[in-house]
Design goal:
426 residues
Length: 426
Amino acid sequence: MRVFKFGGASVKDAEAIKNVSNILQNYKGQALAVVISAMGKTTNALEKVVHAYFNKTGEAQANLELVKKAHYTVMKELFSENEEVFAAVNDTFVEIEWILEDEPEESFDYIYDQIVSIGEFLSTKIVSAYLNKVGLPCTWLDCRDVIRTDNTYREAKIDWSFTERRMQEVMPSLLEKGFVLTQGFIGGTSENFTTTLGREGSDYTAAIVSYCMNAEGMSVWKNVPGILTADPRLFKNWVKIDRLTYLEAIEMTYYGAKVIHPKTIKPLQNKSIPMNVKSFLEPDSAGTIISSQVVNYYPPVIVVAKDQLLLQISTRDFSFVAEENLSHFFSLFAKYRNKVNMMQNTAISFSVCLDNIPERIAPLLKELEDEFNVVIDKDLELITVRHYQKEILNTLRKGKMVLLEEKIRNTAQLVVKDLPKMQRLD
């Protein structure tokens, strides 16, 4: 069997969903599991619902109505109004409305997972109904029935033993009937609570399915021709990389390359399952193959992580920042689930670059500032260059103030902010 994953851009509207069905027509009759993300920017829209509800702004219901309107607009282009999918989607929205009726009492992360996960249930119900309508037999599977996680909301950890056993019990009989279509990004606990696997986690779901079912291959369908040497929205003269090793792909995603979720590669590597990153806009093109095959040369690859902040932490008495201090810092990073993107230590200070996630940064700063001096720089970018060359680094520094820089054998990292554009007074 094979596993396909289609992201939000590939199912963003009615025409996009029709395009997915056209791609899948070429695989009719094959054993294929299909993992689908939420439509378009639905996850962002549902995050606004969560924030409004948790912070009691009074805008949660209005924000939800925008999500409902977007989905019903797509459905009216795909189905006649008396088809069962409308009732199924309406019932799914009711799950959010039930939550909004009560005051928020649980943690933010728990509420986030219960509401934001609905995006994937909506998209998969719509796509599944459309595939069956156009003659592609498809079984809708609630991924919570097969993917078991712990209770770490928003970054749930997989119970691999249970998940592999359960998936092998459920999937084979469903695959005999046609495609199996399920949700990315989502799992379920032993107490039947919904969890999510981390932002953009649908790639990871596809890797979980591939691993558990010993798939012969996995394909991730994107709106780019494959893995590129730079984000085409930020840089010109990028090129497509035809082949990557698992190790190189892990390095790229660790440093923030958005084309693949960071946790995706390792399960595939463990069972030597090749992965193909392909374009849903050009489905006949080759894409990028990630496998164990040796690659002798890579061009420079640039990864830009935006909305970073830099903390410079020092002791109040200007004593050395020693091992006990570092141990304490990292215990706090782990406690509040702050990912360290870059760090540097001097005799009297420790600098660390983190993603600016307010609900995780605020409690971290509160504890740090109780004991240490903390200087904060915001609105930064972290630029990582794999297989860097001096000329490229010089180009990337232009118009930027470099706050932190580090080089190791194959990787250079720069924490930068824009320099103000100064004009001479007459």
